[in-house]
Amino acid sequence: MCYILVAMAKICPITKKGSKVAGKYSNRVRATKFNPSGMKRKQPNLQKKRIFVPELNRAITLTLSTQGIKTIAKNGAYKTLKEAGVI
To answer: Could you tell me the pTM of the whole model?
Structure first.
């Protein structure tokens, strides 16, 4: 039995980071060229990673944010994925 998780697009299962709407231009640009374009959708930095979990003796493929990858490196794969509800 192989654990391969196909996550929802553009959401990290560990940090729950998704897209958000933010301003497109800084105030300095608005002051010099008054053509405000309003808001723009910003996407998180997601990477597709294959993580080996020694406790399960299996590899899991996930789409994670870079912050989620750092969390796994710090706390360990099994503990982090268990807390997130992935395993």
So the answer is: 0.74
